[in-house]
Amino acid sequence: MTRTLQKEKRRNTGLPVIGWREWISLPDLGIKSIKAKVDTGARSSSLHAYDLHQFERENEKWIRFKVHPVQRKTREVIEAEARIIEFRSVRSSSGKANLRPVIMTNIKLLGVSWPVELTLANRDEMGFRMLLGREAFRRRFFVDAGKSYYGGKPQQTKKKSKRA
């Protein structure tokens, strides 16, 4: 999309434009970048999480979990903790409902940071490790369903080669 067309869309909606998939970060969880599917059909947002363990901290329910932030790969593992705000029944795309823990964490997209609710679920079989539902971006962004990565792609960290 040309810059002129993007400015026109922003002027018409008053909102910055994002695509149907974007790279985001979840700084509170130690996730520098994760590819998210922006899903206007899903109400809530979901993060791939496994090895979930509940515990108490200062009389509040917390959860410790692991995340594979890269699609179709399990090599990189990030361990995170968050306070559980509730358990919610969520119906998957296959129609099956299950009870999931819900956490609140900050998300960063296009240089903007704000808190979002995330359900934790094993998304190993799904195409994206994160689903960004409409409640997370409502009144913040305009979604261009035909484009991707308005925020750009993350910079790859180059591996240092060993020299003798």
Count every helix, treating DSSP H or I runs of 4 or more residues as helices.
2
Rounded Rg? 17 Å
- Please give the order of strands in the largest beta sheet: 2-3-10-4-9-8-7-6-5
Q: What is the succession of H and E elements?
A: HEEEEEEEEEEHE
Structural class: mainly beta
What does this 3D model show about the protein?
This is Retropepsin-like aspartic endopeptidase domain-containing protein. This protein has about 160 residues and is mainly beta. The protein has a single domain (about 25-145), classed as Cathepsin D, subunit A, domain 1. It contains two helices and eleven strands, in the order H-E-E-E-E-E-E-E-E-E-E-H-E. The protein has helices at about 5-15, 135, and strands at about 15-20, 20-25, 30-40, 45-50, 50-55, 60-65, 80-90, 95-110, 110-120, 130-135, 140-145. Strands 2-3-10-4-9-8-7-6-5 form a nine-stranded mixed sheet. A hairpin with a 4-residue loop joins strand 2 and strand 3 (about 30-40). The longest helix is centred in the first third of the chain and has 11 residues, at about 5-15. The radius of gyration is 17 Å and the shape is globular.
Write the layout of secondary structure elements.
Layout: H1 3-13, E1 17-19, E2 21-26, E3 31-39, E4 45-48, E5 50-57, E6 60-67, E7 78-91, E8 97-109, E9 112-121, E10 130-133, H2 134-137, E11 142-144
Parallel strand pairs: 1-11, 3-10, 4-9
Antiparallel strand pairs: 2-3, 4-10, 5-6, 6-7, 7-8, 8-9
